[in-house]
Amino acid sequence: MQHIYADPTFQMACDQFWMIAEHLQIPMNMRDRLMYPKRSIAVAVPVRMDDGSVRCFQGYRVQHTLAMGPTKGGTRFGPTVTIGEVAALAMWMSWKCALAGLPYGGAKGGVYVDPRKLSGSELERLSRRYMQEMIPFIGPHTDIMGPDMGTNEQVMAWFMDTYSANLGHAVPEIVTGKPVSVGGTYGRRESTGRGVVYLIERAAHLLKMKLGNATAVVQGFGNVGAVAAQGLAYKNGMKIIGISDISGAYYNEHGIDVRAAEKHVRQRGDLAGFSGAEPIPADDLLTLRCDVLVPAAVSGVIHGGNAGKIQCRILAEAANGPTTVDADKVLFERWKEIFVIPDILCNAGGVIVSYFEWVQSLQSFFWNETEVVDRLFRVLEQSFGAVIRRAREEKIPHRLAALAIGVERVVKARQDRGLFP
Ligand code: GLU
User: Fold this and answer.
1) How remote is the CA of residue 97 from the centroid of ligand 1, in Å?
2) How far are the Cα atoms of 11, 17, 19, 106, 354 from residue 144, in angstroms, in the given order?
3) Residue of the nearest CA to atom 8 in ligand 1?
4) Is 239 a catalytic residue?
5) Same domain, yes or no, for 215 and 329?
6) Are 107 and 35 in contact (CB under 8 A)?
7) Quick check: is 416 in a domain?
8) Is residue 181 in a domain?
9) Which residue's alpha carbon is nearest to atom 10 within ligand 1?
10) Which of 108, 239, 309, 395 is an active site residue?
11) Which residue has the least CA distance to atom 6 on ligand 1?
12) Which residues form the domain of 258?
């Protein structure tokens, strides 16, 4: 099929899907319907800059599958965002939501922009105009937005406000990841990182591995990576020996003071100049010897070139798509050495709590943080158990098992609903 999504990340998502399609023996005439997005929207987002000039940004929203309920997924603001990358992320959201048993199809949105180069008011005008352009295509029962890389609670609040202003009343259920003050849920901001830590604890338990004093490396010290690092260090007593962000990678064999690193980022914007660790080349971070490796940044960082050199016991994929298909082949050969927690399971905590937030917003009935966290762990426990059982029964890698469960559920829904007309 000729298509508009040409992009290495989309290709990677397609290659993964094709592997699953072969494994599940999905009929040929269903494969394109499952793989290509159902709807994609591209919009021009004109923004008045602080100096009076007007710049026009490209914005996208991809709704991957409509068979399971409304679509759900974050919005990414980044300097490399393409419609192909957004389509890949939307496809992964479909499999992720299905694996967790959420009543959603996958979606994702994005704007091709470097948010670090915008002032606060420029970011606000961009966020509001992007939402304005999207209004005809989304809705609380059509497509619900959430946060992703480059967006945060404040951006979600602007989205919610812009949508609500258009309707003339508050519509908190249009977006998740918003502040508690406007109908957000307790525990959404921490949810992805908390989920990552929970699954690492479960994996360590299975492997009969003690986490106290074990070492971890966290690539990407953003919302997800920093919360995960905290949980590993302060809840489990692990030593975080390496961290990184856009400014570079940092190493300290005695363990990094995670709170000090967070404070540094809050005050200075990134880790540059952090005195609690030595700068090291970014490429060396992922191949450090450690017990737990957490890629929590962009996709494709573990590839054919470095997969053979990774030296961890547990690979916890907090990012979306950190491991390429080539790397997967290497990791499968090393399955006895490296226990992989695949991305659609590992980082599912975010969208699971987004689902809780949507439910609370729809009902105007709110839960406390303990309820949110308990329910999050219950859903993750079920998904983790299902993936491990499937991998054992069919003697397949964890990623294949996770994707098989997710894709199979979408296939079933498609088949049950039938082809219209
Ligand atoms: N961006 C998150 C993810 O990749 C989820 C966004 C949401 O909560 O909708 O899973």
Assistant:
1) 10
2) 25, 24, 29, 10, 10
3) 351
4) no
5) yes
6) no
7) no
8) no
9) 351
10) 108
11) 74
12) 191-346
